[in-house]
Design goal:
140 residues; alpha+beta; single chain
Length: 140
């Protein structure tokens, strides 16, 4: 996968991602709230949008109608953490690592009911790791 890495402001990546998912979210009765940020990152603008769009789409897909999806940020010494929080059913501990593998889903019926291929999160993982980052899930 070719990466065009350069210093980019993170907020336009988030704004464009939210815009790309807003109609999908609206059709599911879900809102997306994003905390503005002033951080810049060294990354590929288009690939980072691909990651955030996928994470937002998953969050919307698994959230109940009337829920909100939240995007927030934590700044550390040399990196930024982008957090996507939803009100979905969660991910059981035994699936937390598996959902980042190709064609793996928490429930097999998710492929048909939620219209997923099981490729989105593995692609996100590949992109994030190509940027020198990590991706994971926290769930209750």
């Amino acid at each position: 996968m070719e990466m065009k890495l350069k210093n980019i402001p993170l907020w336009p990546v988030i704004e464009q991602s939210v815009d790309a998912v807003s109609h999908f979210a609206s059709s599911h009765g879900v809102t997306i709230d994003a905390q503005p940020c002033a951080q810049a990152v060294y990354g590929d603008h288009d690939r980072l949008i691909q990651v955030v769009v996928n994470l937002l789409s998953n969050a919307v897909k698994f959230s109940p109608q009337g829920a909100s999806v939240f995007v927030s940020f934590d700044e550390h010494d040399s990196f930024v953490t982008v957090n996507v929080k939803d009100a979905g059913r969660g991910v059981p501990d035994q699936y937390k690592a598996l959902i980042f593998e190709r064609f793996k889903q928490v429930k097999s019926e998710d492929a048909t009911e939620k219209k997923g291929t099981g490729l989105g999160l593995p692609i996100c993982k590949m992109i994030v790791e190509s940027h020198g980052g990590t991706i994971g899930v926290e769930s209750k």
